[in-house]
Amino acid sequence: MLITHDTRCALDTVVDLVNTVPEDEAAPDGLADVAALQEFVGTHDISDVGVLSEPDLSAVRRIRGRFAAVFAAPDARTAAGLINDLVAAAGTTPRLTDHDGYDWHIHYFAPGASVADHLTADCGMALAFFVVAGEQERLRRCEAPDCRRAFVDLSRNRSRRYCDSRTCGNRLHVAAYRARRKEAAG
Ligand SMILES: [Zn+2]
Ligand SMILES: [Zn+2]
Question: How many whole angstroms from 167 Cα to the centroid of ligand 2?
Answer without folding.
Answer: 7
